[in-house]
# Entry
Amino acid sequence: MSIWSNRFWKIALGIAFLTETPLFAEECNQATMDAFAYEDCITAQNGGTVDSLNFGNSSGGEQSSAPKAPAYAPFEKVAYLTSSFGENRGTRYHLGIDYSTDMQEGWPVFAPEDGKVDEIKVSPYGYGKVMFFKGESGKTWVFAHQSSFGAHLDSLVLKKMISSKKNDVSLSPNMSVKKGDTLTFAGSTGIGNPHLHLEIRATGNKALSPCNHGVQCADTIAPQIFAAAAMYKNEVSFTSKAALESGCVESPIKNTYEDESPVRVAFKIADYSRVPKENPMSVRRVELYRYDDKIYSKIQDTLSMANPTRIRDELLWAEEADTAGDWHFIDALLPPQSNYRIEVEDYMGNVTTQKFNLRSSCKNNEPFVKTHFQETPLFTYLSRPMIDFAKCDDAYTFEAFDAAGNKLGNLCQAFPKKYATVAKIGELFPKVSYVKYKKGDAENNIYVYIAAGKSANINWNAKVEGMEISQKISGLTNKTNDGNVALAFVKTHTDSLDFIEFHPKGIQFTGKWDACIDSRTAANPLYWLGETKRGWNIFSKQTKGKTRCVSINELRDIASIDNREAPSLGFAYWSNTIVGGRHIPALKIPLIYKYSGLSNGNAVSVKFKNKWIPVEYDSEPRELVIIGELLPEDNETITIQITDEADNKVTHEVTIPEM
# Structure
């Protein structure tokens, strides 16, 4: 009897298939019900609790083109949105929508129309297992993070892995599929918890909003506006939710009845799809009216896939990026003596409206958190470097110095408002070169640079304390800032590492950022710090000589790390994976590393004697996954070779455990 018959059917027979779903009752009629009633009907029928509160008001008239009764639902089961089209993904917009699958893998995904499977790819990162489906309409549908492509396509993938001896592969099967057929199976490959990422791509290198093209996007909650900011040259004033709801936005111009200089504004906005409020999303439309005149409009139904960095022309970077909402910049000048109204609409037509005036101060205006993961007083907010002078109340001192070390002023006295932009410090002290902050015997320096005029290119060389750092930025746009452009960096320490923290994050430029650090400071390879997961990642391209240099399209925190330890393996154990849409046994082996992971799935190779065995690397939760049927018997030994991103190589011998 074969290994499969002998060892695995006893487990496979006990695993439920994922094609069984409850039937919908006839009274839940999507054709006759509006979107909200239909969603509530399905929710109630599946045992859920229907909340009868009215969360949003109608958009009214011609302002919204969002469909009310979308035709295509990717699953038989009810799924809610966890991410929207156009959502902030750090340096780019989210090109599709995400559906929750209740932390389950293997939900069947149905074909949205007649068409052909144009391409499938397997990778441990990004989209993971991804399918590109070309519909007869001409649209390309992208289904990412899949667990399985179905029996036929999974067998083709496995054959190509074995023939090419590569774990990351792509195929163009050109397989015909009818509308409503099972197309693929949702999962968690690539990155993130189990979910479905769905995109629609059109000709002209554009991504289309699925919610505006016949896709079910259940969302019953209107957007929320959490805060406001008003900007005038080098100053920013913030308004809390409570003060904003009273119709007030605080201006940095304190004589608003005498000074008629216009200001710029930004609003912190988020949308939720359901209660409980989880996974704040982006919105479709933001418009601003002065009296009855529309002075700003942003409607996001399409996105260019060629230029994702333009996100910072509208969504401003804030240090507390993990909290709810994005800061939407309003590209308009607002005179103080006017009545304003902002309208925000989500992708199902729910609208929130807020009227306001600009005032020198607002009642009930409370401070709110502006930093996250910060070890130093230097932080970025609204794509501007700022310094947190609230620490002055905690026995810190802050003093400005010029390049020659001459003291220019006491910043705790100069900025009693608890924070200031670095550009404002430069306005008050034009010769400032660094800010020294101290508490007790501990002290550190924040190094600053104020750009002259509106130059599109910056070249800053800083030589400090035996350390030399240079930065070049090309294509600076500065669209959201009428004041001076400022840069800053500070040397700090965390996670047993010294590193250089650069600001502002989310700076607006269309070119690139070249950063060089002298070889004494950066004796080892350079790594960059992920802003969300706080993990260190090696720069794949960097030069070495008198300086170590990197070139990328965003500012990153950088550390020089001596990492010569290759990844190790945890204890192998039996679990399940999904092949052909069904759960089957698989051997899973944790991959353990601190800094340098795998650049791709081909960085690991598994062999039994001279036989090459396909393996998938699951980047979350960092595990090697091997289909059980492909392995030798219990207690045999396989050889696993790994090369990490720092080019550390290691070979591990793993004994197959008993099931």
The first helix runs from residue 3 to 7. The chain is about 10% helix and 40% strand.
